[in-house]
Amino acid sequence: MMNVEEEVEKLKEEITRLGKVQTDGSYKVTFGTLFHDDRCANIFEALVGTLRAAKKRKVVAYDGELLLQGVHDNVEITLNHVPAAVN
């Protein structure tokens, strides 16, 4: 079982895979796209919980608190741009 940090990292990968890159380097994807993706369904036992944890860490942004499948399929989730670490 993954811990929350690992799940948030995986979520970032999946949003990058499924989302569209924006001019500022962030990625946008709808909740429905994430929710209905087979790979995401296999990775995340509780996608909504992972999204909430990621939002709390300011990794992602979206409107509302609790996202519900069907009701919130069109809600945009933004993966905030994280500048690459400079060595």
UniProtKB/TrEMBL annotation:
GO BP of this protein: regulation of actin filament-based process
Residue ranges occupied by any Costars domain in the UniProt entry: 2-80
Family in the record: Belongs to the costars family.
Protein name in the entry: Costars family protein-like
